[in-house]
Amino acid sequence: MKKTIVLAAVILSITACQKKEQVTQETTQVSDTTKVVGTETPATTTTPATGSVQDQEFVKKASIGGLFEVELGEYAQANGTHAKVKELSQHIITDHKKANDELKAIATKEGLVPATALDAEKEAKVKELKAKKGAEFDKAYAELMVSDHKADIAEFKKEAAEGQNAALKAFAQKTLPALEHHLTMAEEAQKAVK
User: Fold this and answer.
1) Looking at the 3D structure of the chain, how many domains does it have?
2) Structure pTM?
């Protein structure tokens, strides 16, 4: 009987040790999984040391917007029919290429990530606009440049006022006059092609 009790105690002790070891292993695995998941966060959602979420969102939106306007400007140069549309698109190409390069340099220096391609929304707008021809294209392009530049100006004003990164704030402030000039030209083109 004593041997049975001792044997039962030994078995219970071994079982308890095995369960404790299993719990420890599972806890370690959960901890390791947490570490892996935590390190796989995409760069666009992290807050860099030199910029806030506001700054990163500005870099993303401004870089996508710049790419969008250059692509449409180049298409308008080749396919637009009205002189005002061609004049507007040439200004947009020149100014936005320069601004895109400057933004990319600032973002890279500050550890922020600019977009290198259009998002789905902008891709759809490009496709929709490229389906139009002649006067229909001119009208749609001018209209889109009016609405797009109004949105750009609002974003750049917000960054100039609320951004945390001094270089980005200065860039936004410096770029605003060109965007406002584009808006004026787009409104003139819109009136001319109606």
Assistant:
1) 2
2) 0.72
